[in-house]
Write a structure and sequence with these properties.
By secondary structure, this protein is an alpha/beta fold. The chain has four domains: 202 residues, P-loop containing nucleotide triphosphate hydrolases (Rossmann fold, 3-Layer(aba) Sandwich); 154 residues, Rossmann fold (3-Layer(aba) Sandwich), CATH 3.40.50.300; 44 residues; 83 residues, Alpha-Beta Plaits. It is built from 24 helices and 20 strands. The strands form four sheets. A seven-stranded parallel beta sheet has the order 3-4-2-5-6-1-7, with helices on both faces. The protein has a seven-stranded parallel beta sheet with strand order 10-11-9-12-13-8-14, with helices on both faces. Strands 16-17-15-20 form a four-stranded antiparallel beta sheet, with no helix packed on it. Helix 3 packs across helix 4, helix 6 packs across helix 8 and helix 17 crosses helix 20. It is globular. The chain binds adenosine-5'-diphosphate and magnesium ion.
Length: 597
């Protein structure tokens, strides 16, 4: 997982330490991380901590979510003398939110060190409280470069005793125009100091900073943690620009995620999309550079506490945001740079939870998607935007799920009586009709209408994208060419075709189980079943002799691994009938796993 570019005399990476004790962390810090539930050091921690404890400078290249804060925060605390009431460590971060987050994290690492104080300093909030905290002898300062410079100039912050400097998210600090301020802080620090520089990317500007200000740094590069990738399901949908808000509100309406972040490119879009969601009755708010710092902070707190479910944000405003509840990231605008994509999706799947990252691409933006796939080496899975029927279905299911508990709670006599009276007054009322009407009222929508223009356009865009995929993907081996597929599509049953079933790796399906279902429920014999390719969310089966309408009918009700088989001709993504949420047509997430001829 880690590929270390260590300089010659650096600690050997070939024997990675597996505990915090083994990497030489002082006892008090070991106890603190144990209390936080950290069992083993992450890759960047295993490499950075020993080097920093050894007094070395380091350059760490690592993505979001790899545990950088502890990688520098723990050795920083080991270097600080709590009995000396002077600033000894300064951490620079690109945003106010990050400054607070990092300060909180370092305070929690210092829980077992009496007398140690950490102060966050940032712009947009009054000087005096920060100044007072500094005067009271804080040893660690975490701040944005601009505000740190302000304090230095006012002499409310002194660097004389600083022995440890951290540049966190250095690339972002430069991107935000802090290059000069960062240089300035580095120049003012005493010569005998350690520097740890962390960055997700290593553009030449960061290299130059490292060359000028760091002494023979140990370079540590950590590949993306595999857990981040596997715990975040990455999907996309082709959505024409003008339907993005409509598609987004449907996605949010059927999502099971506790909370979601919607990323947009511009401040204007943040406001527009945020307001549109609020208008649709969704518990949403937006943050961008335009929103005052204090307000932003309050909004993030509400998101964390559950008072808010959807946050619309620009990249800068949401940088480094760490909220466990986020189960869904929506890229409302597909990011221009693959790195931005990686940062965005790092906002979900936190703390070992599952997450989903869905990217909207307009029909003309699909090359950006390919670029992201090449960079991240992850293939995004195309999904279907939920239909109005899916949204209503989701709402009513959630309502029905609450029935047992409500029944249990009792006090239903009044309602029972009301039903009896209503039925008596309206003879001939079908109780099923009555219940359906009451459900519709309770769910509060008009009931799904016919497919509208938006549905039709989404469907066209999706099918076009799926066809492009097939043309562009060389790894489909023996699958028929496009022309051939078209011809086979015209068969209803009995053709020499491949069939598609809606179960795959995701459901833990093995070829044997599919053969079992086809021979059992479908009445085929083993000889009738040809090659089987299992993909992420579906499988393809050759049935050279075709299926009779009767067999098709029986298989239509069959289940494998507890999921409906939904067998149909392999005509690409489903184009008829209601597309169910969670039915993800097309694009395998894994290659074919096993051929059977
Ligand atoms: P980064 O700065 O690289 O994005 P963070 O330092 O914010 O990552 O850490 C991401 C999350 O992982 C945080 O919730 C943190 O508490 C958790 N974490 C960090 N190190 C460990 C560890 N060794 N064991 C368990 N959880 C960890
Ligand atoms: Mg971080």
């Amino acid at each position: 997982m880690t590929s270390a570019l260590l300089s010659s005399d650096a600690p050997a990476a070939s024997t990675p330490a597996s505990t915090f004790a083994e990497i030489g962390l002082p006892d008090a810090l070991q106890r603190a991380v144990a209390d936080l539930g950290f069992e083993t050091p992450s890759a960047i921690q295993a490499q950075a901590i020993p080097a920093l404890l050894d007094g070395r400078d380091i350059v760490g290249v690592a993505q979001t979510g790899t545990g950088k804060t502890a990688a520098f925060g723990l050795p920083l605390l080991a270097a600080v003398d709590p009995s000396l009431r002077a600033v000894q460590a300064v951490v620079l971060t690109p945003t106010r939110e990050l400054a607070m987050q990092v300060a909180d994290a370092i305070s929690s690492f210092a829980a077992q060190i009496p007398g140690l104080t950490v102060v966050p300093v940032y712009g947009g909030s009054p000087f005096l409280p920060q100044q007072r905290a500094l005067q009271h002898g804080a040893q660690v300062v975490v701040g944005t470069p601009g505000r740190v410079i302000d304090h230095l100039e006012r002499r409310t912050l002194k660097m004389d005793e600083v022995r440890f400097l951290v540049l966190d998210e250095a690339d972002e600090m430069l991107r935000m125009g802090f290059a000069e301020d960062v240089e300035n802080v580095l120049r003012r620090a005493p010569e005998r100091r350690q520097v740890a520089l962390f960055s997700a990317t290593m553009p030449p500007a960061i290299r130059r900073v490292a060359e000028q200000h760091l002494v023979d740094p140990v370079e540590i590069t950590v590949a993306r943690q595999s857990s981040t990738v596997t715990s975040v399901r990455q999907t996309y949908a082709v959505v024409p620009f003008r339907h993005k808000v409509g598609a987004l509100s449907r996605v949010l309406a059927v999502s099971d995620a506790d909370a979601a972040i919607v990323f947009v490119r511009t401040r204007g879009a943040a406001e527009e999309v945020g307001s549109a969601l609020v208008e649709k009755g969704i518990s949403a708010a937006y943050i961008s550079g335009d929103v005052a710092q204090g307000e932003r902070e309050k909004i993030v707190d509400r998101l964390r506490s559950g008072a808010l479910d959807v946050l619309v944000a620009t990249d800068v405003a949401a940088r480094g945001l760490d909220v466990d509840r986020i189960g869904l990231v929506v890229n409302f605008d597909v990011p221009r740079e693959p790195e931005t994509y990686v940062h965005r999706i790092g906002r979900t799947g936190r703390a070992g939870r599952e997450g989903e990252a869905l990217s909207f691409v307009t029909p003309s933006e699909q090359s950006r998607l390919r670029q992201i796939e090449r960079t991240t080496r992850v293939q995004l899975e195309q999904i279907t935007i939920p239909t109005p029927a899916d949204v209503s279905g989701h709402r009513v299911t959630k309502l029905l799920d609450r029935i047992p508990e409500r029944t249990e709670a009792g006090r239903l006599d009044l309602y029972r009586e009301t039903v009896a009276v209503h039925l008596a007054q309206n003879p001939g009322t079908d109780p099923a009709d009555l219940l359906a009407t009451v459900l519709a009222l309770a769910v509060g929508d008009e009931g799904p209408g016919a497919r509208d223009e938006m549905d039709a356009e989404l469907e066209r865009a999706r099918l076009a994208a799926s066809r492009d995929d097939r043309g562009a993907r060389p790894d489909r081996g023996d699958r028929p060419e496009r022309g051939e597929r078209r011809r086979t599509n015209t068969h209803i049953a009995g053709g020499p075709a491949r069939w598609r079933v809606a179960v795959g790796h995701r459901d833990g399906v093995q070829p044997g189980a599919l053969v079992g279902a086809l021979t059992g429920e479908g009445g085929l014999t083993g000889k009738d079943v040809g090659k089987i390719d299992i993909f992420g969310s579906f499988s393809l089966v050759d049935i050279p002799g075709g299926l009779t309408p009767d067999a098709l009918d029986r298989l239509g009700r069959a289940r494998v691994a507890g999921r409906p088989l939904r067998i149909r001709m392999d005509s690409g993504p489903r184009s008829d009938g209601p597309a169910r949420a969670g039915h993800h047509a097309s694009r395998p997430t894994h290659g074919p796993s096993r051929g059977r001829s």
